[in-house]
Amino acid sequence: MSDAPPKLEWRGVSKRFDGKPVLRGLDLSVAPGGSLVVIGGSGQGKSVAIKIAAGLMAPDAGRVLIDGQDVAAMPAGERRRLPARFGMLFQGAALFDSLTVWENVAFRLVNADGVARKAAKARALEALDRVRIERTAAGLYPNELSGGMQKRVGLARAMVANPEIIFFDEPTTGLDPITGRAINALIREQVKSLGCTAVSITHDLESARKIGDEIAMLKDGVIVWRGPAAELDRSGNADVEAFVRGDPSPTPV
Questions:
Q1: Which whole number is the average pLDDT over 105-134?
Q2: Closest Cα to residue 168, out of 198, 213, 212, 144?
Q3: pTM for this structure?
Q4: What pLDDT digit, counting tens, does each position of 148-157 carry?
Q5: Angle ∠(173,174,176) on CA atoms, nearest 5
Q6: Could you tell me if 142 and 101 are in contact, meaning their C-beta atoms sit under 8 angstroms apart?
Q7: Which has the closest alpha carbon to 120: 77, 158, 60, 161?
């Protein structure tokens, strides 16, 4: 068994909004090269958890560790470089309407990494190849694409810089089942190809089973169950079973 620390870890992470607790001492980790999917109902803290991990939001208490290093204790220069180690596929793809497809994919390369436009375009085209978008679409604008194609462009943008960790925020929301399955297959394929660590949040159980090595359920700001994706239907946890059935959460006896 490897002695390597988790690639990403939340340790006792808490967060409140307007005095209301959203995360209540979250403890969760994902191993290097692993794919963890966090499921749970709306308002349970899934999006907040990945925003804190990605450095988009600060916790009120607790720590986030990357490769065993406390992010808050890192030297300022190293902390500023952390975003370069991450990729993110946002819910709805979140493409820039005023930029072409290739410019969207290359945005981080040009504006954060200082890559020349010609080289950035070449890398963007390679990333588009990997998500099976024809290069003839590179000069189109997002409003000229279907929802599924926009999601593929978002995936290309998330992985163009070969990140160590990729976050997927509801990757199949708004897609029809066939397109959703295609996106799930692409995510699984590309994560394995890159050898990166993946953390996803979703309500879509088919997606969770497809892209996750492990699944964790977040409820009331804490993890109530975690296990292999194959064990989801026999978790033995009442909250998980209710979520899988689509029932309201069980009422304690």
A1: 94
A2: 198
A3: 0.90
A4: 899 999 999 9
A5: 105
A6: yes
A7: 161
